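Bit of a strange request maybe. I'm writing a small parser for structure token strings and I need a real example to test against, not something I typed by hand. Could someone generate the tokens for this chain?
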Amino acid sequence: MDIKPTRIHDVLIINPHIFGDDRGFFMETYHARVFASNGIDAFFVQDNHSGSKKQTLRGLHYQIRYAQGKLVRVVSGEIFDVAVDLRRSSPFFGQWVGHMLSAENRTQMWIPPGFAHGFYVLSEWTEVVYKASDFYDPECERTLLWNDADLGIEWPLVDGKPPILSKKDADGTPLRLAETYA
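Reply from user aminoacidic:
Good idea to test on real output. This should exercise your parser:
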């Protein structure tokens, strides 16, 4: 696997090696030793799988307690995946990184605990799977406002149209009012 840091060094882009022949392909999407040697020492406790139609935006979600690290990949379609640093002790606090993940490029993104996470669907239908390093706890879940001007996330909105949002995501909290990490 090729593992490279993003502008926010703790968020990593992972490109698995693909082994293909006339039957199809094989790739490792997770390897504990390889991940640990690249600073990812997470123990995963939950796998999640979502399907979404084009122009859906999910996020920006995080848990204020039981913070989750997430290893995200796309098994069908394409998304713009975003991580926002919510660690006040980080030099990157309040900054974001985004990356295109697709079934075609098979790229993964590692988002460590302490970040809000969200994605925007670019294809007609997309299925996203991710491993989480802690269990989901609805009482601890928080939502950061996806279009907060203080974040300045450059979402690649299809035809400039507003995204399809859940009520929870539409009612997200701006960064200046959000609960964050130490």
